[in-house]
Specification:
Strand content: 15-25%
Number of strands: 5
Order of helices and strands: HEHEHEHEE
Radius of gyration: 14 Å
Number of helices: 4
Oligomer: single chain
Strand order of the largest sheet: 1-2-3-5-4
Amino acid sequence: CPHQPESGCDCRKPRPGMLVRAQQELGIDLANSYVIGDRYLDIDVAYAAGARSVLVMTGNGRAEHQTYKDRPQQPHFVADTESSWRGLWDGGIHSVGGDSTNADGRCYIG
């Protein structure tokens, strides 16, 4: 998004405008799509667009997860390593080694 935060545009995260535009222009099925990122803004935009969210524990991911772990809106998946989130592209989340579902219902992979 090229806009400044104070502009209030619908395409700046956590608003889903860019994803909705991609859905309209490219026919993307957001309900069967993943938003992968290392910030909770990425998680928020996934929820706003009706997509699934993956928080990667690289970059800012580990610190963000620690800071926001008690928020009600959590990532659908947490990927601890690059090979685990890349496994999403290789046949789905269930094909990744080391999967486990926590008591909170989130799948931790890695």
